[in-house]
Amino acid sequence: MARKGIMSSRLKEEIAKELGFYDVVEKEGWGGIKSRDAGNMVKRAIEMAERDLMQRDNTKSK
Questions:
Q1: pTM here?
Q2: Which residues, at least 6 apart from 24, have a Cβ–Cβ distance to it below 8 Å?
Q3: 3, 7, 22, 41: least CB-packed within 10 angstroms?
């Protein structure tokens, strides 16, 4: 059973570029990245989501 990804393709590409391994994705696809890179990508996505939630909370409380 295939799992549907939570992150959009655009977000994954943006983070991969930011972390410096998008060239591997272009050459080998997402299966070619190192597990460490995948973990760092998830960590960065979580950081971005937490920051977004904090900004939303700050906007609501004003």
A1: 0.79
A2: 32, 33, 37
A3: 3
